[in-house]
Specification:
This protein has an eleven-stranded mixed β-sheet with strand order 1-2-3-4-5-6-7-8-9-10-11. α7 links the parallel β6 and β7. α8 packs parallel to α9. Helix content is 26%, strand content 15%. It is built from twelve helices and eleven strands.
């Protein structure tokens, strides 16, 4: 029965003494998706990662999932695994090298725990053994800064910690999707956006999320270069501080034409404490600020489906609610709804968890800058600015498309 298994999840399990390898060998001929969480006892010596040429020969000989003979015993090959998720490993880093057993790997999802490992070597393993890799998802849950002092004498210690090294060197032909989420900014992570540019010719979906802790993760110019150089970008999400106010960031982003003419959704959460002050949060409305839209009956929104986009919005909401404690009254905002647009953009009320009935306090000047910034991007349907999602469609059901974009 196990011989026909296509999806396998292993969690809180002891994989020592070759136990993990034996299980994977049993299902190796059919397995397509593998997830490992909190598995202990596995050592890299339990597998013998062969060269790409040897792997190809073994697969051609029908030995995938069994092994090719050698002095060290049989070698594990998982020839059909396309997705590998490895998360919450706090006892060993050797599990990451199972990617070298997956020649057809397309998606690698790695939750980075508290132990360090050599990112340069991991990148090389992916590049050498996983030629079909198109999607890299990285979640960093710990602050790695202390590891520099602990391992500063180790060869390649900085490369071993820096996420940018992995992003730059993991793919032979270029990534289509990159997602990076971190609680804090590591010492070598300040060039995350610059490392992404290595994949500018192929990248379609990019998410960078410094969801808490330190800000100033990148500059507006870093963001702009991604928008200029990644010409096939379809979705772009950036969460973190730029060290400047939202209006100043928008000004930089508007300073040059973007190359990503295929962009369908952009999500910018780039505020910090009072960065929009004294304009943010006025609570006053300028009803003449809209362009009248297409009339409509003013019906309000629709219930959104759960998904990655919803999770991103909810996290941004929690941050913003902590920050926006002051109310100012010197820049009127614009009332928008399903039936009332501003500069051709609509707001579907129930789709923003931030406010119950309206977009409270987004200044007209900020909206004009944001909507003007994306003028000419004909395929762009969604623009999210500091938690609030605007669309070019008056149909509230369009938000289902928004969820689908981020669920791909």
């Amino acid at each position: 029965m196990l011989g026909d298994l296509q999806r396998l999840t292993l969690a809180k399990w002891d994989g020592s003494d070759g136990a993990l390898v034996e299980v994977l060998r049993t299902v190796g001929r059919t397995l397509k998706a593998l997830e490992i969480r909190q598995l202990y006892g596995f050592k890299e010596r339990d597998i013998a990662i062969s060269t790409p040429l040897e792997s190809d020969r073994a697969i051609a000989a029908g030995e995938g999932g069994g092994g090719a003979g050698g002095a060290g015993g049989t070698r594990l090959v998982l020839p059909h695994v396309e997705g590998f998720r490895l998360s919450c490993f706090t006892k060993t880093s050797d599990l990451v090298y199972l990617v070298g057993c997956c020649p057809d790997l397309e998606e690698f999802d790695l939750h980075i725990g508290i132990h360090s490992f050599n990112m340069t070597r991991l990148a090389s393993t992916l590049k050498s053994h996983c030629h079909k890799l198109t999607s890299l998802v990285l979640r960093q849950s710990q602050d790695f800064s202390e590891l520099f002092e602990e391992h500063e004498e180790d060869e390649g210690s900085e490369d071993g910690v820096g996420i940018s090294t992995l992003i730059r060197g993991c793919s032979l032909s270029g990534l289509v999707r990159i997602e990076f989420e971190a609680a804090v900014i590591g010492p070598t992570d300040m060039d995350i956006l610059r490392s992404v540019l290595v994949h500018s010719a192929t990248l379609e979906h990019l998410t960078i999320d410094y969801s808490d802790g330190r800000w100033h993760a990148f500059t507006p110019k870093d963001i702009l270069q991604v928008l200029i150089q990644c010409r096939h970008l379809k979705t772009f999400t950036i969460i973190g501080g730029t060290g400047t106010s939202v209006p100043e960031t928008l000004e930089v982003l508007s300073s040059q034409p973007w190359g990503c003419l295929e962009l369908e959704a952009i999500y910018l959460h780039i505020d910090e404490d009072c960065l929009l002050a004294p304009h943010w949060g006025s609570g006053e409305y300028d009803d003449d600020g809209s362009d009248g839209g297409d009339g409509g009956d003013g019906e309000e929104g629709c219930g959104g489906r759960g998904g990655r986009a919803s999770r991103v919005r909810r996290k941004g909401v929690r941050r913003s609610r902590r920050r926006r404690s002051k109310k100012c009254k010197n820049n009127a905002s614009v009332r928008m709804s399903t039936g009332k647009s501003f500069m051709g953009w609509y707001y579907h009320l129930k789709e923003s968890p931030l406010y119950d009935q309206y977009v409270d306090g987004v200044p007209r000047s900020v909206l004009k800058a944001a909507f003007g910034m994306v003028k000419g991007l004909d395929r762009l349907l969604f623009l999210t600015l500091v938690d609030v999602t605007y669309t070019r469609s008056s149909d509230p059901q369009i938000m289902e498309v928004f969820e689908d974009l981020y669920a791909m």
